[in-house]
Amino acid sequence: MNIAVTGINFIRQAEVAARLRQILPAEAVLHAEEDTRSYECDGLSAYRQLPMVVALPSNEEEVRQVLAACHELKAPVVARGAGTGLSGGALPMGDGVLLSLAKMRRILALDPVARTARVQPGVTNLAISDAAAPCGLFYAPDPSSQIACSIGGNVAENSGGVHCLKYGLTLHNVLRVRAVTIEGEVVEFGSEALDSPGLDLLALMIGSEGMLAVATEITVRLLPRPEAARVILASFDDVEKAGNAVAEVIAAGVVPSGLEMMDRPAARAVEEFVHAGYDLEAAALLLCEADGTPEEVEEGIAGMAEVLRRAGATAIRVSGSEAERQRFWAGRKAAFPAVGRISPDYYCMDGTIPRKKLGEILKFIAEMEKKYGLRCPNVFHAGDGNLHPLILFDANDPAQLERTERFAGEVLEKCIEVGGTITGEHGVGVEKINQMCVQFARAEIERFQGVKRAFDPGGLLNPGKNIPTLHRCAEFGRMRARGGQLPHSELPRF
Amino acid sequence: MDSVLEKLSELVRAAGRAKRALRLRGGGTKDFYGQALEGEVHDTRGYNGIVAYEPSELVITARCGTRLADIETAMSEHRQMLAFEPPHFAQFGSGATLGGVIAAGLSGPRRQAAGALRDFVLGVKIMDGRGEVLAFGGQVMKNVAGYDVSRLMAGSLGTLGIILEVSLKALPRPAAEATLRLELPEDKAIETLNKWGGRPLPISASAWTGRELGVRLSGAASAVAAAQKKIGGELVDAAQGERFWAGIREQTDPFFRDDGAPLWRVSVPSATPPLRLPGEPLIEWGGALRWLCSRADARTVRDAAKRAGGHATLFRGGDKSVGVFQPLDPALTKIHRELKREFDPQGIFNRGRMYPEL
To answer: How confident is the model at residue B5 (pLDDT cuts 50, 70, 90)?
Structure first.
């Protein structure tokens, strides 16, 4: 937070743009403000910065040459997919190059027998499933922004979605990433086999927020589309009861394909927007899905409905048709835009907690609403304990923005306190960089910096995101202490 | 830091000062695996015990020295399991430990459906080459704070640090399982497995053992029954089926009987046609994993694997001077070397276990 806006040095801008125009066609290098303005922020629009230069390569060779040139010029590079990220991971730099992969949007190969698709990074998440649909296959991770977000961005953030409880995150569904390092070397992480020799660099690359290398080609795993799916919509008169019901469902030995929760304020905002038919009197709603063969789905739905009833559900509806199932989900998937309609701005958090702490964290959020005088509807990927509380505020009022950031900071630190994490799927970006100092100790942050150095010794790829400097942590003043003591108290502190 | 870790940290720092190699070892069940065994043995079994296990959270956390068998017993009491089915290899040592399981990164038959060991790692605590205790990841299902160092430890063969504690995702045991046996030649078996893979069938394991294909179905009883009809073949008696899969997982199946020929592990895209290498293959993971007892030279095996888009490991036996793991290209080698230097600056941990230069 408090990211200073950098002015553009026009002499440097002309130098870098001229160098990049030796590589790319003139129209693929932007530097005029009217052209670069649309790149000033990603989905986290509270942070804005004009990039010095925007480069739009169309193929891997161009990416390679652009990166090598930036390396030579010591110009920092921020890679960007569709710009839908929610943590400012693609926030440009005033002295850097914004590398847009948007032109690289071809599906290179789709193999229905091996069940893989080889795609360029700018391909949208949904386009992969659409292309695979005629073969009865789909790409499982389905972030709410799937019609717009790019697979390259999904790799950078290790994106999840509403079905990752059963199908996993991007990490679990990507076999191979071909990428270019800042030095302009092409590297392949993973392969089209199920494993690769050496260290699992693919795991490091996925979720690295564009800090290690720039992905130019991605092979994803495709899964057979389940024959059937039905979803239960259960109402609860108490939020904590709904939270406990989630734990009961998991403990009963079924893994639902989706298990989502919404509190009343969120449900009301959504209902007005998409008319999903939600129970507006309920304190909390659970969406609980089973998919698989028709037999499996019947067994799963019956079992889960029974558990939910025992856990105190006041009403249970089961989708009777595919249209109704889609309608139940439409509400959940439209939660962010729906909330966007009832407030000038909203701030979306992304902490993850152990499921059993759901009740405790909800109570804490309610207290924070009072403390800061701001409303906060809640939507959760309850099955995996991933929270998306949405703080409503008006960005035109600087005092409200400041209160919002403090509110969010307190909730994230509470997530750490109960054994969770500050980000489940949206990434650290610039947004949560201070809380990284709370979640990790000095030595851990140093090792993260070491990982970065191993790929990008000059620190030119997306600097300032994801991993804080120790200096920043010292300024933030909340380096994590273990058992009341800073680790290695013998060492000098920044 | 507790006193055990203080002592360990002192040991590590002393080894670092002297640039003395430490060989991290649990039950020794996988001593056969990897390039070289160098250095003074550090027995990791002293640091053991299940730290936390909450079935409703689907997470188990245990220390490195905990026996895999003890973890599985605790989990089976709650009808849960480690879905990646890591091998115990009891015939090669005295009880696999969690630390060794994670470091080796090996997954068993269920990997084709459930995912690999690395997919189940949620968090680790390690001691690096500076003797510092570091925690990465956590106990929650979704966590993208910082780089995914915990999964980097999976399969790292102990080259980056001492794995002290691991949190793993647990899964419920399937309500029903059944094993089917079909008679098919190699090419047809591969073709059929890939065809099935594109259909929503609850196949949790497969093994072609020469003319015969074993298929395990797992899931809701109704789904298993329905799939049985679609797949056909002969239903294997339940106890016999369990023995069969244990034999594949633990490499006690007659295929793995040591007749002096080296055992190769060839990992390829699942639809790769028969490799036609000298020696009999055993095919797992829907076609993606091919075991081969063969005296063919390393070059032949590696070239075939590479042509198919995969890699070959000299898993057990043979002449290790040909390189146990498929060599990496220079760009990847450089990153490996840098990562090693960051985590283990003096190069003390499991020196040469993965590649001679690491």
So the answer is: very high
B304-348 per-position pLDDT tens digit: 999 999 999 999 999 999 999 999 999 999 999 999 999 999 999
- CA A139 to chain B, closest CA, distance in angstroms equals 13
Which residue of B lies nearest to A353 if distances are taken between CA atoms? B140
What pLDDT is attached to residue B112?
A: 97
Q: How close B124 gets to chain A, by Cα (Å)?
A: 12
Residue among B79, B81, B140 with most chain A CBs within 10 A, to mutate? B140
In the predicted structure, residue A75 carries a pLDDT above the cut 90: yes
For residue A484, pLDDT over 50 is answered with: no
Q: DSSP 3-state assignment of B81? A: strand
Query: Do B147 and B239 fall into the same domain?
Result: no
Q: Looking at the structure, tell me whether residues A458 and A441 fall in a common domain.
A: yes
Which chain B residue has its CA at the smallest distance from A154's CA? B144
- CA neighbours closer than 13 Å in the CB half-sphere of residue B332: 21
Q: B205 with B93, same domain?
A: no
Q: Which residue among B105, B135, B144 sits closest to A425, beta carbon to beta carbon?
A: B144
- A193/B310 touch (CB, cutoff 8 Å), yes or no: yes
Please give the Cα distance from A27 to A55 (Å, whole number). Answer: 9
The CATH number linked to A63 is 3.30.43.10
Tell me the one-letter amino acid at A178: R
CB atoms B331 and A185 under 8 Å: yes
Q: Nearest-CA residue of chain A relative to B337?
A: A454
Q: Are residues B166 and B188 in the same domain?
A: no
Structural domain containing residue B240: 176-249
**Do residues B48 and B155 both lie within one domain?**
yes
Better pLDDT: B102 or B220 = B102
User: A217 and A122, same structural domain?
Assistant: yes
Cβ-based contacts of A172 with chain B (< 8 Å):
115, 119
The CATH number given to whatever domain includes residue B238 is 3.30.70
Are B128 and B196 found together in one domain? Answer: no
Q: Tokens for A123?
A: 């391909």
Q: What is the ipTM of this complex?
A: 0.97
Question: Is residue A4 in some structural domain?
Answer: no
Q: B291: number of CA atoms within 13 Å, CB side?
A: 24
Asked whether the beta carbons of residue A194 and residue B116 sit closer than 8 angstroms, the reply is yes
Closest-CA distance, A241 to chain B, in angstroms, reads 15
How far apart CA B61 and CA B12 sit, in angstroms, is 24
Q: A172: which 2 tokens?
A: 């679990």
- How many structural domains does chain A have? 5
Do both B24 and B152 map to the same domain?
A: yes
Q: What is the pTM of this model?
A: 0.95
Beta-carbon contacts of A182 under 8 Å, excluding residues fewer than 6 positions away, are A67, A70, A71, A77, A213, A455, A456, A458, A460, A461
pLDDT at A284: 95
CB contact under 8 A, B198 and A115: yes
Which residue, chain included where needed, has tokens 């470091």?
B103
Using an 8 Å CB-CB cutoff, list chain A residues near B311. Answer: 191, 193, 196-197
Tokens 């959940």 belong to residue: A332
A198 vs B contacts (CB less than 8 Å): 325, 328, 332, 336, 354-355
Whether residue B164 sits in one domain with residue B189: no
